[in-house]
Amino acid sequence: MTMRFSILLLLVSLASCEIFSTRDPETPDLGSQFIWTPASTPELLLENFKGTIENLDASDYVKCFVSEHDSSETAGHLVYSFIPRSGLDAGGQSIFQVWMASNEQSFMTKLRTSLIKNPRATVAFTNVAIDQSINTASISADYSILLPVETNSSLPGAVTGSLHFQLEAVTTEQANREWRIIIWTDFPPQTGGTSTFTDLKLKLTS
Predict the structure, then answer these.
(1) What does pTM read for this prediction?
(2) Which of 5, 22, 71, 106 is spaced 20 to 30 Å from 151 by Cα?
(3) What pLDDT, in 10s, does the model give residues 33-46?
(4) What range defines the domain where residue 81 resides?
C-alpha cells in the first residue's frame, strides 16, 4: 500500500509540474506598422497615401481625399475628381466622370478582398516634386505598385505610371487644418505597355 501511495504521489507531482511549465512563446501578430498622421503638410499627405495603399486600408485611404465634411477658406465646397489616363473608350470615360471619394474607398476595399490573404502591397514613388502655396499645393511623382495577386487572378501584379495631385488645405470636420487631394490625374509610363491606376480601377468596377 505504501509503495502504491508513493507512486501516486510521484505521478501527481509530475502532472503538476507539467501544468505550470513555461510554454514556448507564440510569434506575435505585429499587424499593420502604418500609423495615420494628420496631413499638416503635403509631404505627410503623400506618406499617408503610400501607407494606406501598402496596407490596403480603405478606411484611412479615403481620408486622403476631400470629403463633403471639409471646407476651404478660398474654394468653398470642394468636390473630388479622378482624371484617368488618356486613351480610354467612351465606357471607361463615363465611369470616371462620376467618380467620387466614396468610389476610391470601394475600390480599395474590393482590391484588398481580391488579393491573397493578409495582403500587403509594395509602393515606390520616384521623381517626386511638390509645389506649395498657402492654401494650395501640387504633387507630381512616378509610381510603381506591386500587388500580391492570386495565381489565377485577372488583376495585374504591378501598376506603373505617373500621377499629379492637386491639393487643397481644408478645415476638417474635427476643425483641423489638413491637406486633401481634390484632383488626381493619372498618366501612363513613357515606356507604355503596362497597367496604370486607371486600368486597375476599371478592373475592379467592371
Answers:
(1) 0.82
(2) 106
(3) 688 899 999 999 99
(4) 36-203
